[in-house]
Specification:
alpha/beta; rhamnose metabolism (chains A, B, C, D); Xyl_isomerase-like_sf (chains A, B, C, D); manganese (chains A, B, C, D); isomerase (chains A, B, C, D); two-stranded antiparallel sheet; Rhamnose_isomerase (chains A, B, C, D); homotetramer
């Protein structure tokens, strides 16, 4: 059974936990085959932020929204930030876009043509301006560049061009900014991505400096990769900047985090708790940013995000309930099954009552999914948001 | 060295080989992130057929074009067939579309709502009409249905609904028609596809009858699946209806066939040759239909298709050059390295001279890729096809 | 919350559940790199059965032990059966061995040499004799045959030889016997296994007759295969004979079932419960045999098996607690998140109290793992079993 | 067609190429299921070296033999080195063994118990002594340590203990020595290996210093990993120390290099040639050591090694024949298909005549596989090596 002390400490940690929502989760998404729309989907950045604020309203732990430029381009970012504040949330990481210009067919930061690279670098200057206008401190860069055919381009030359481009982007940062560099094994290119793995991301971050850190998207690995090991290693070398949480069974499926393999999410959060990395770093520097990055292709967006947040909370709560003394004692003793059981006992625990208590103590409904469903908000959106064009990856 | 007899027989077989082109390869395609256009891309079915005819003109072995309904919907299919004939090609398999209607969000032939299933079945009646109008004998059905989350729907009920829907479609066929049932492990759904593997496709074909056969798309398997084994097994049970050729490194990458792993393509063609299944079946019944199904996301379409055809030809030529007496003798003797070498010796052979001879004997340029590049046709298309909307998966 | 009725029905079903233990789990196992021994490991079939009986003593749901011939070869099988009965367990499936004879280097039932095939077939006659002597009704055949290099042997000829061999083995069966045919994607051969997938196993079972059924080993699939789908499909076509339970992260890791992905095990058991296939079939015919097949390379054997049994029980209990009315209603309504939640709510439930109640109602300790650890039995074995050679896969 | 200049330069490079053979390839190997023996297999290090020398005799490019301690432990290493010299070969890398002591069940360099770690470190002192006695300069360390169950041990603590152990081993090196650190995704442990990927290996090498470099075993990655990208990246950061060549379809299959995917081997060698890393580094420092690491489970050992060497030569020859001017021009121009074709044209070339010429110019038979088969040597070994115990991984 869970000791009262551990339970109390878990509640404290859960109270301090924050999860960042992606604005694009509130627009439509899909596959190359079809993007399905749904009544009430947000049509612009303001509506996306309003929707994100709903998620925060019901969960209490999602106080920031990541923006994606140009999808969230507005004339007045200060006004957008003020609107977010009114809604009870803040602007989080600024995501650049390197995949939707016609010029990027063969690459952006790695393109053989300097003019294309310069354009891609300049786009980050715009993003840094958005950061300054909104108070964001995280510039997130996912490099979609890659090649489809062996020989199509010189892999080494692309790395060298990439290093140069990243250096120029890094130079744009203010001292309190971070550059978060994501990796991905494949898609949208299918022979060689230019940042396919954490090793490559780390090599570039080390070359850049302390403000550069790695983003781990849980859907961006080869089958059977042990993700919690990478979490541990990046924490160990001080370079885990952020998560893009989602889940997958096959490719980069971008399903609701924790939906495909809740035990994996728990193991990831266990490495976070073990390294005391759940909150901001003790020295006041930025810690790990726990962000969602998902596609609600067939399910409704706001409920999908609420479910995602509660899934992360459940995994975190279980990780916090691990009896670490028992765990470490068994590990030291070489008691394989005992140590494994110390971990799985926490996973087997039903933490829904604990999270209900957490929410009620904060004045929230104990079950955010049910509360939102009962609110009638989704129907209201469908009635209100008539006409216009629903937001999607294209805009 | 290759014996003169084997070489002569190979030339005969290569002369008889045909490869079917997909109309949609001549429109734009891409990923969920971006679809890049290019100058001169076809804008309607007529232009797609004209482009396919170019591929046949330069290779001599691509005399049929698969249509996709509704992407290739026209008012007068007989006229389209006549146009194709003028261009020197014929209409091949008719592909139905079960993924682009808004109603299909949760399934088509497997949908819980009978009205949706009926609509999806009725679409196949339209396709059968197109077959009658164009002389096509193959109705190809790729079922994109599936679920994204465990529990989302009842897997067994979906199979039963599918079996019923397929039965109704099968009943639409004329005696000379075939129903070709494709399988795919994932995408566009990410938890469970309703026809995920050859076993499921076969189970349904067996229930339907002799006119139902399996389509093997080379990109639709789990990592490390031995595809040539499946080819062998489906041939053994008399149910290999067709290939959708392409190649992959990761997911369903839809790259040019033979580009990712030419040795795999050779091993596949080796099973075909070993089973004497390269041509139409000896009893006059339809044999294996060798079709391409690819996405030329970043490379030009017509050259991409020409390259695909020549890749299949090279793999076929190598398979035909295998010294089967030596191979079988070594196999019978348990000579592991000798038998392997009998196969790889053929793969190591440079068959480009043989194929050049084949083409020249048919009055073609020995190098179709170079000949097309030198023709100026691509520039002509870019100059001619100004305005309008380029074809893509959406239309 | 779980309704009292559902809880009561779950207890009934759990009371009727049985799990079969493999004798070889009580001997040593390891990798090609090293087999580690441990004090007290069983040295012969009698000791293995005694150890298995311990697992049944503490869990109450493991009343059968699978034998493996020749590892469990004894002079008097009737005596072995009687000894098992004394210990409180019965003899379950008889497993043949087709991989340890020097003659099997290039295959057993598929070997090009009829003499080798005949020897492998004759081995099954011995196994059937063991079945008759012990009252076992399941003959389990895992075919380890395969090839390491493309071309090494003729894939089709191997299938035909296999079909012939299986037919001869099938002819040995008594009417109440079943032939359970397992499949495996790879290992011990690394190019093409001769029964690599459920489709191939099914093709052979269909050719053999109703007494032939498929065995699904949860570790024998390609990465990212949806196993519960296969469970559903085999149940649907009436050919799921048995499970070999274990868990994997990479290859055929043979870890404790439920240790790597407890949600997957739950989903598998959910398909079993959904199809009402947990117990013997209602018509009195044999149902699905739930067997373990694992390697306790580094953990102690008896505790490893107890943990395996309790993991299966926990997954079963959760599957039984699914609110199927709510699930089906949400599925019919197309409520993606609601249906998913109906499933995951059961998974999130802590079923340890329910299982404790189940055990106490049967006069057992509520926590079999703890009870066995406290019993001192393991130390007693280490003290008693001095000298001799510990059992392993070799003997 | 290949230009005469390019052909001449290719011949020069092929003349300078060396491939290192593993002593253990000449002993028996197998799977956890069975190790098959064969007549004439070597029984001790002397016979293994004699067998390796045969491979060099027929190929002319395999002048070194890696040793594995303790499998190749002898009383007098200087005598072993002298024997090798007499046979025409030299001692190459010294491989340590961290997986066969009973104490290593839970780890070696990462073990929680300092005494076990000290023992594992001390083993490397022995290896360094062997290096001094034999003139070897490469200490190769494959860490088999890992865990089977989540929670079994503290992943981070194991990294820290590993870093400390590696530091102590590094301190044992002479200035001309290198420490080559290998990585592997799984096996013999199945939850988390302690050096699972190139990133982890690199992190440790960077912490150690310039004498530490990464070993890339081509069979040690997750499915669909792009290996040539890793080759490029490790060359780029100056840390590619060596290859362990073999090939795989599924796990760490350890098949003959180039047998499973010859195009992949070609792409790897293409990165090597592109980076001018085929020979020793220009500054006199050690370059990449091209080693084989394979298991000839069912095929004869010496012919298996000869075939492996010729496969590497063929891939190298093709890489050397790439028209790099054409390749780079097409790459710069963004000519996707043209650049791809520049690569694949070289792959399509039959390089067997070139290699025959290379061998004949060195006084060798043009076909080493055929020449060895015709030599009668294998029969002679079978006749001579009667009695004794054949070498294997155990000794």
């Amino acid at each position: 059974m869970t000791s009262p002390d551990r339970r109390a400490r878990a509640l404290d940690a859960l109270r301090a936990q924050t999860i960042e929502l992606p604005s694009w989760a509130f627009g439509n998404s899909g596959t190359r085959f079809k993007v399905f729309g749904a009544p009430g989907v947000a049509r612009d950045p303001w509506e996306k932020i309003a929707d994100a604020a709903q998620v925060h309203r019901y969960t209490g732990v999602a106080p920031r929204v990541s923006l994606h430029i140009p999808w969230d381009r507005v004339e007045d970012y200060a006004a957008l930030g003020a609107f977010a504040a009114e809604q009870g949330v803040a602007i989080g990481a600024i995501n650049s876009n390197l995949f939707q210009d016609d010029e990027y067919r063969l690459g952006s930061l790695t393109h053989a043509d300097r003019a294309v690279r310069d354009r891609a670098i300049a786009h980050h200057a715009e993003c840094v301006e958005v950061m300054r206008a909104t108070g964001s401190t995280d510039l997130k860069l996912w490099l979609p560049d890659g090649t489809n055919y062996a020989g199509q381009d010189d892999l080494r030359a692309r790395q060298d061009r990439l290093a140069d481009s990243l250096q120029q982007i890094y130079a744009l940062l203010d001292p309190e900014h971070r550059l978060l560099v994501e990796y991905k094994i494949y898609e949208p290119y299918f022979y060689a991505m230019d940042i396919p793995d954490w090793g490559t991301s780390l090599v570039h971050c080390l070359a850049l400096g302390d403000q550069a850190q790695v983003v781990l998207d849980t859907g961006h690995h080869a089958p059977s990769t042990n993700i919690e090991f990478i979490v541990m290693q990046l924490l160990r070398v001080g370079r885990l900047g952020a998560f893009d949480f989602n889940s997958r069974n096959y490719g980069d499926d971008d399903l609701i985090v924790g939906a495909a393999d809740p035990f994996q999410l728990f193991r990831i959060m266990n490495e976070i708790v073990e390294a005391d990395a759940l909150g901001r770093a003790g020295d006041g520097t930025a810690g790990v940013n726990f962000m969602l990055d998902q596609c609600h292709n067939i399910e409704p967006k706001i409920p999908g995000q609420i479910r995602s947040v509660t899934n992360v909370q459940e995994a975190t709560a279980k990780a916090l309930l691990v009896d670490r003394d028992a765990l470490h004692t068994a590990q030291q003793a070489g008691d394989v099954l005992g140590a494994h059981a110390a971990l799985t006992d926490a996973f087997a625990t039903d933490v829904r009552p604990l999270l209900a208590e957490l929410r009620e103590s904060a004045g929230l409904h104990p079950d955010p999914n049910a509360a939102y469903a009962a609110s009638g908000h989704q129907d209201q959106l469908a009635a209100d948001r008539v006409g216009g064009t629903q937001a999607s990856w294209g805009a």
